[in-house]
Specification:
The complex is a heterodimer of chains A (496) and B (179). Helices cover 74% and strands 1% of the residues of chain A. Chain A has 496 residues and is mostly helical. Chain A has a two-stranded antiparallel ribbon. The longest helix of chain A is centred in the N-terminal third of the chain and has 33 residues, at 103-135. The relative contact order of chain A is 0.18. With 179 residues, chain B is mainly alpha-helical. Chain B has 2 domains: 2-91, Helix Hairpins, CATH 1.10.287; 95-178, no CATH class. Chain B contains 9 helices and no strands. The longest helix of chain B is centred in the middle third of the chain and has 23 residues, at 55-77. Chain B starts with a helix and ends with a helix. Classes of the chains: A mainly alpha (496), B mainly alpha (179). At the A-B interface, helix 8, strand 2, helix 9, helix 12 and helix 18 of A face helix 2, helix 4, helix 5, helix 6 and helix 7 of B.
Chain lengths: 496, 179
């Protein structure tokens, strides 16, 4: 109870509430703009939050992270274009419902399922917090190394159809982190005698280039999309939202998948919603209607993806390990303020952790209230032409890169990564493995160095329970993947 | 879940235009970087493998090279989609936006953030093909909003323009501080 009150005291400040409002409303708007997404918005906002207190900056970023998927459901349902990539499955059933005149019902279900998922995951994590506070200190250097390695392995394996590309890009990210003056012997690595490379490649510059600038180039070099907004009923939001109670089993299972997938580094929203959608379809009385406007499909997809953000904060806060690119960006806010996430944070600053979860809880309420009164206005946001959006992103991006050090070189590096990200996106290669490689690679190098000082034989590395479990998970994940590849290969060969 | 099952794990059936070309560039870059490891990294005497400065560049570049090689082999065996050089042309054309962006950055210390932002927004709107008065008004309004929000309100660290030096004392202070 004391911790809850301390957490409440941390967020009961005008600047935290303002950050929460700006983040949540901004996140919904960004989510509703197809082609922008939370990653772009967080990348742009990130440097601006460095001058704020950690709780204020993180609340603003969490606001964007947690609310963008709410907004992303609007274009997914109304114009068959997901606002954020993780709303893709919502189009399967949302758009067919809109076409048969049930747009309002589909939107209400998406909002209520997202709200259910968000609140469910936060409650789970508040209940789990004492357990995590006990487990977190059991993570020494070798456990953190193995957890980061598990994250790297899962990031690669979960990129279905792009595993080799994800593998080389995650290695590229690890390599980027090694550039510059290293901390152990103070020697230069891959600086080519250039003094400006001695401080390394800045994560923020890479993030802004890969996510914001590349997206601006994509939008500017493409053609404007013309959307026709369908007419939707002006009333009936509340009664349609209550319909979620008819699908509470699907919502609860989908949210559970979201919590589990969010907690495992490298897995995240995509896996959770595919699993939830599969489950909902298999257990439905009307499985044939999936993909043709089945409300259960919307509930499964939206509850699953919106339960991930809170859960994704677990490995970040408890171990300092980000599970995907958005939490990787948030990690830099901690480091800038010299707040090091990890077991110590869970042990000594539990009120800070609780404050973050309470902020997420309030955020979900704020977003639903905002959506209830502003959906009609948000529909107009979708009509901003793509190339105009590209110009807007480019203008915003400058603030992020230039305000770091007022350096033209930083802007040039960000622009180079922008072109690199542009090519990757054109080829459908993933960009997030680079960021995770950079963050987890640096962590792995430092932790391995510390761990090896106490290790004499390879067995010593995994002779502790958590280390052994993590190692087993890595082996099992790789083995399962190899089995599925062999099966797929046999199927392909058999079909020829 | 047809979509998910139809997505192959490792062996895509077709490649995108330019994918093979870029896979080759990526592999060449990885090999080139790996070949430089002896003169771009050092080995410290008396330290173990995990504490050597060369270890992680070696691990990452070896991984990059192996994955890039495997990717190149798999990509070369998948069905080709025509349009490689057209795609490369699109990549090259994106450099135009890099140019305008860097020009915008370079102009800020000279003509000031407000003027540079307004000019950039209006020019990019024109360059994107919009010609209506409403589009230009929206671009100018957006530019002004960005400057007011970040420079005037949040006081983000962006230097004043050199041209501000020619302004009268009071106006010069306001322009440097807020615009």
């Amino acid at each position: 109870m004391d911790i809850l009150l301390s957490g409440l005291a941390i967020i009961a400040r005008w600047d935290v509430i303002a950050a929460l409002l700006i983040g949540s409303i901004g996140g919904v708007m960004v989510g509703a703009m197809p082609g922008v997404g939370a990653a772009v918005a967080i990348a742009i906002m990130l440097p601006a939050t460095f001058s704020l207190e950690p709780i204020v900056g993180l609340t603003a970023l969490l606001g964007i992270y947690g609310s963008s998927m709410f907004g992303g459901a609007i274009p997914a349902i109304l114009i068959n274009t997901p606002g954020t990539p993780v709303n893709a499955l919502t189009t399967y059933d949302g758009y067919p419902m809109t076409r048969r005149g049930e747009g309002r019902r589909a939107l209400s279900l998406a909002y209520s399922a997202s709200f259910f998922g968000g609140v469910f995951s936060i409650l789970c994590l508040i209940l789990l917090a004492p357990v995590l506070a006990r487990i977190a200190p059991m993570f020494g250097a070798r456990e953190v190394f193995l957890a980061a390695l598990l994250g790297i392995v899962l990031v690669v394996l979960t990129h279905r159809g792009q595993i080799l590309a994800a593998g080389m890009l995650v290695c590229y990210g690890i390599f980027l982190k090694t550039v510059g003056l290293e901390g152990a012997g103070y020697t230069q690595r891959y600086t080519f005698g250039q003094t400006w490379l001695a401080s390394g490649v800045d994560l923020i510059v890479v993030v802004l280039g890969l996510f914001a600038l590349s997206q601006a180039f994509i939008l500017l070099s493409g053609k404007d999309q013309t959307y026709e907004l369908p007419p939707i009923a002006k009333t009936g939001f509340f009664s349609s939202m209550a319909e979620i109670l008819r699908f509470k089993r699907v919502a609860a299972v989908a949210s559970s998948f979201g919590v589990i997938c969010g907690m495992i580094p490298g897995v995240g929203e995509f896996m959770s919603q595919f699993m939830s959608y599969s489950y909902a379809q298999k257990t439905s009385k009307t499985p044939d209607l999936f993909g043709k406007g089945n409300p259960e499909g919307i509930v499964a997809s939206e509850a699953a993806n919106n339960s991930v953000p809170a859960a994704a904060m677990i490995p970040l806060l408890a171990l300092g390990i980000p599970g995907e690119e958005l939490t990787a960006m948030m990690l830099s806010v901690f480091y800038v303020h010299n707040v090091i996430p990890g077991p110590q944070l869970f042990q000594n600053q539990m009120d800070f952790v609780v404050a973050l979860y309470m902020a997420l809880l309030i955020l979900n309420v704020l977003v639903v209230l905002f959506l209830l009164v502003s959906t009609d206005t948000l529909m107009k946001v979708m009509l901003i032409p793509n190339r105009f959006l590209g110009m807007m992103i480019l203008t915003f991006s400058l603030i992020g890169v230039y305000s770091l050090r007022n350096s033209l070189k930083d802007c040039a590096i960000a622009a180079a990564f922008g072109v690199f990200g542009f090519i990757l996106k054109r080829l459908d290669w993933p960009t997030s493995p680079i960021i995770l490689g950079m963050v987890l690679g640096g962590l792995m190098e430092a932790r391995l160095r510390t761990a090896m000082a106490r290790v004499e034989t390879p067995w010593d590395f995994i002779d502790r329970p958590i280390a052994f479990v993590l190692f087993s998970m890595i082996v099992i994940a790789i083995a399962l993947h190899v089995v599925s590849v062999v099966r797929e290969r046999r199927k392909v060969t058999g079909n020829v | 879940m047809e979509h998910d099952n139809a997505t192959p794990h490792v062996f895509p059936e077709a490649r995108k235009p330019g994918e093979l070309f870029y896979s080759l560039i990526f592999l060449a870059t990885a090999v080139a970087l790996l070949s430089m490891i002896f003169w771009q990294t050092s080995v410290l005497p008396g330290k173990g493998f995990s504490a050597q400065p060369r270890t992680w560049p070696f691990i990452s570049l070896t991984g990059m090279t192996l994955f890039a090689l495997a990717n190149l082999v798999v990509t070369s065996r998948s069905a080709r989609t025509p349009g490689r050089w057209r795609e490369v042309g699109i990549w090259v054309r994106s450099l135009e936006y890099v140019g305008w962006y860097l020009l915008y950055v370079a102009a800020i210390p000279v003509i000031g953030y407000l003027t540079a932002t307004l000019a950039f927004c209006l020019f990019m709107t024109w360059r994107s093909g919009y010609r209506s008065g409403a589009a230009f008004a929206a671009a100018a309004g957006f530019g002004l909003f960005v400057v007011l929000l970040f420079k005037s309100l949040f006081n983000v660290k962006i230097p004043g323009g050199a041209v501000y030096e020619f302004l009268p004392e009071t106006l010069r202070y306001i322009m440097i501080r807020y615009f």
